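FAQ

Q: What does a record look like?
A: Structure on top, sequence underneath. For example:
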């Protein structure tokens, strides 16, 4: 199998690189390099720059703002975005609810939501997980009872990321308890201004309050805000999770982090901060990470090549998710080693940081990246999928 890029692919990569050099604001790039917390305005401004270029939602249908790119071009775009230190935009808008509305929404829903979602005039959050229903999502209990042209929703969601910014939530609710758990789930679009909907922040260990609980108390949601058929929410959710896992290996991100770590290791050694023994130990770990990253990249390229010929495999997404997220976490561990004791302190986001930005970001980034092996289907669940579909266990 030929894994090399064509001349057309190389020309496309050059086009993407040129655009990113010109369009990515310097301040935003600097924030990304230092792993500083991005404000809502940072994400909104960048997604609107991409949308003006026609590149905000390349994976959507062309009639709703997408691009007719090949799988290879989509891979190149994701990698170049990471290597240029560009934010990914809102994943809830781009990779999750947008493709669901495009695939299963009514024409009225598409017209109402898709242009605003692409331009991030609407900011979405995800209402899936509940206490006792995380990886076992079918155990959810939030109820929605039909009452005329509304559903009356009661229950609780948890780990709702960036609900403080959100205008709308896409949520799974239970409309039927009579059959299999997966058969009684419905997919709703919920205005965050709905009476009876309350959000409560959860401060995470990195000092950020991007996670929330959401409580529904007799909240009335129009039936017109239902996606597809009642009781088929599980099918739509599986489709959404497939989009969420696309590109979740984030090879470009790991490449960018590895390059930074190598540069930092050299600078620290030249400054006399690292002795020869520490340097040899760190260089060995960086080399091991590079070998694993290269193997993962080759696996990703094989998947891209197979997908281009209609032969993509669902199992590959699980493999890429497991190894990709483990490598992302490895990079944060190496950053902590390089930062040393100075990296243990987590500065308040409103405090002035006196040391190097990457040192101040080491611990918060280490902690926040613990989640990548959980969301999008925990790595334990992905290993079960691999064991069943590949090994036949």
């Amino acid at each position: 199998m030929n894994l090399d890029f064509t001349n057309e692919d190389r020309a496309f990569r050059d086009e993407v690189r040129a655009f990113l050099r010109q369009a990515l604001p310097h301040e935003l790039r600097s924030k990304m390099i230092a792993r500083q917390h991005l404000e809502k305005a940072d994400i909104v401004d960048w997604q609107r720059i991409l949308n003006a270029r026609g590149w905000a939602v390349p994976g959507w249908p062309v009639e709703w703002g997408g691009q007719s790119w090949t799988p290879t071009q989509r891979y190149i775009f994701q990698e170049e975005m990471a290597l240029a230190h560009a934010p990914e935009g809102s994943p809830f808008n781009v990779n999750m609810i947008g493709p669901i509305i495009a695939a299963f929404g009514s024409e009225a829903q598409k017209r109402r939501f898709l242009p605003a979602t692409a331009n991030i005039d609407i900011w979405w959050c995800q209402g899936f997980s509940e206490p006792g229903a995380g990886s076992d999502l079918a155990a959810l209990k939030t109820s929605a009872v039909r009452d005329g042209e509304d559903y009356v929703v009661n229950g609780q969601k948890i780990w709702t990321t960036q609900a403080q910014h959100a205008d709308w939530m896409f949520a799974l609710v239970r409309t039927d308890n009579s059959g299999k758990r997966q058969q009684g789930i419905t997919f709703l679009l919920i205005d965050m201004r709905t009476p009876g909907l309350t959000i409560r922040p959860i401060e995470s260990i990195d000092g950020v309050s991007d996670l929330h609980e959401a409580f529904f108390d007799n909240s009335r949601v129009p039936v017109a805000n239902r996606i597809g058929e009642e009781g088929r929410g599980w099918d739509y959710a599986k489709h959404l999770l497939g989009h969420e896992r696309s590109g979740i290996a984030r090879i470009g991100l790991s490449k960018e982090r590895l390059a930074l770590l190598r540069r930092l290791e050299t600078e620290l050694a030249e400054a006399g901060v690292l002795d020869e023994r520490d340097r040899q130990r760190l260089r060995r770990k960086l080399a091991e990470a590079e070998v694993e990253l290269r193997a993962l990249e080759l696996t990703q390229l094989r998947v891209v090549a197979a997908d281009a010929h209609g032969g993509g495999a669902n199992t590959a997404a699980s493999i890429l998710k497991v190894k990709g997220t483990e490598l992302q976490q490895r990079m944060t561990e190496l950053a902590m080693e390089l930062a040393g004791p100075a990296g243990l302190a987590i500065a308040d986001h409103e405090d002035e940081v006196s040391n190097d930005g990457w040192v101040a970001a080491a611990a918060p980034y280490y902690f926040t990246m613990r989640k990548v092996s959980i969301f999008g289907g925990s790595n334990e669940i992905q290993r079960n999928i691999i064991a069943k579909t590949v090994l036949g266990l």
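Q: Is there anything notable about this one?
A: The first strand starts at residue 124 and ends at 127.
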